Structures are given as C-alpha cells and as structure tokens.
Q: What sequence folds into this?
C-alpha cells in the first residue's frame, strides 16, 4: 500500500473534522444523509454521463494505482542492461534470447526480443514509443475521471445548498428552525468542496505522478535497449542511463566523477 495516499486522506479529513470540533462543533451536525445523496450521487451521475462504461470499468485499476506503490529501482535495471550489453558484445545479441524471454518486465522483454530478432533500430524505437504513448494516454484517462469528479463535486454542493435554502424559505412560518435548517443546507457545499480537494483531485494527481514514474522507467529501458542494439560500450551505456536517475539515486551509486554534476 502507498502510505502517503492513506496518511494524506486521514490527515486531510482529520484536520477538517478536528478543526470543526475544536471550535465547539458537534460531529452529528456534519452527518446529513440528504446532502450526501445529492453530492455523491449527483457527482457519480455526472461521471457516468461524461465517460464511457469501458473506461469506468477500470476505476478499480486507477484506484489501485493511486493506493499502491510499485517498488522501482532504476539502478537494478541499469545494471541488467549493462550486463546484457557486455554479453551482446562478447557473444552477439542471440545470446540474450533466453534471458529476454524470461524477463519479468513485459516492456523490456518485448524490446529485447525485437533486438534478438534483428528488428530495425528505428522500427524498434517507434514500436516501443507507441507503447509508451498508449500507456500514458491510458493513465491520463484515469486521472481525468477524478479531475472531473473534483470539478463536479463543488457544483453539486452549491446545488445542494440552493435546494436546502429553497426548503428553508418555504418554511418561514417557524423562525426558530431557520438557523439549523440553513446550517444543514450549507453542509452540502462543505461535502462538495472538501471531497473535491481532499479526495478526487489529490487522487488524480497521484495517478499522474505514478504514470510519470512508470514512463520515465520505460524511457530508461528504451534508451538502454537501443544502445545495446547499437553495440555501444557497456560503460558508456551505464553513463548514459545514469542521467535518468534522480539525484538521490546518483548519490546512492557513490558517483564521484564528472557525471555527477548538477544540471
């Protein structure tokens, strides 16, 4: 599980509720079933209208991407590619066939198999870049669902508040009930704004960040595959691929040469 997502939700919602209780509010006043129905039901309806079902069926995968963290170690991938480049220079690319077929990463496996099969380097690049673009577009579609929910929810909150005020103004004969009724009406706005800014929009942002991490890893693999195919020196390949590493990873590699200069 990605603890930052879970902790962030707990902290965000906890801060809102805690601040309200700190000022003397009562938790029961925040629980308004009718407002929940209007906001969350209305937002869900708007999302259903906005997106095709084949995309909405993947909401589970989108949430999994936001709430789970895939362990990525670019240094390990670089070492693998450098080692395979050394084998290819000594024994030829055909010596990598079994290793390529058994590799757990499907993107790297496909790329290596194209190299082993003698695919033209430019065609190899085009195919792998198309796969990267398709995956990135797919992830953007997931994030767009939550971004749209973050846009609809505050609007639904305003609608819920207006509906509540209509109900209040229709019962002015009992002034003693005006205060509580107005408070209940504004709860809808609270639900809409808070759900957008604490749940929907942050989840969309987390999906985008996870997507960028995965695409960056695939770009590293692509450059390594093409360098291996070109028969470049393994140490030069390592130097090239190290440019993809975050500064923290570079420090972990213990670099002390000119390759460690800040850009």
A:
């Amino acid at each position: 599980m990605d603890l930052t997502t879970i902790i962030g939700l707990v902290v965000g919602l906890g801060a809102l509720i805690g601040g309200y209780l700190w000022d003397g509010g009562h938790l029961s006043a925040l629980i308004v079933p009718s407002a929940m129905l209007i906001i969350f039901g209305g937002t869900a309806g708007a999302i259903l209208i906005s997106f095709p079902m084949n995309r909405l069926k993947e909401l589970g995968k989108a949430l999994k991407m936001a709430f789970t963290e895939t362990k990525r170690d670019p240094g390990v991938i670089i070492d693998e590619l450098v080692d395979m480049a050394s084998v290819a220079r000594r024994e030829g690319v055909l010596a990598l066939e079994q290793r390529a077929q058994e590799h757990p990463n499907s993107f790297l496996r496909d790329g290596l198999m194209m190299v082993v099969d003698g695919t033209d380097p430019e065609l190899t690049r085009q195919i792998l870049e198309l796969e990267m673009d398709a995956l990135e577009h797919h992830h953007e579609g997931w994030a767009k669902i939550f971004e749209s929910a973050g846009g609809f929810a505050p609007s639904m909150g305003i609608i819920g508040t207006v509906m509540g005020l209509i109900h209040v103004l229709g019962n002015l004969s009992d002034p003693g009930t005006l205060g509580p009724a107005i408070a209940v009406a504004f709860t809808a706005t609270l639900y809409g704004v808070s759900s957008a800014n604490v749940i929907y929009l942050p989840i969309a942002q987390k999906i985008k960040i996870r997507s960028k991490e995965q695409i960056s890893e695939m770009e590293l693999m692509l450059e390594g595959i093409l360098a291996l195919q070109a028969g470049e020196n393994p140490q030069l390949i390592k130097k090239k691929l190290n440019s993809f590493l975050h500064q923290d990873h570079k420090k972990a590699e213990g670099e002390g040469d000119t390759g460690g200069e800040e850009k």
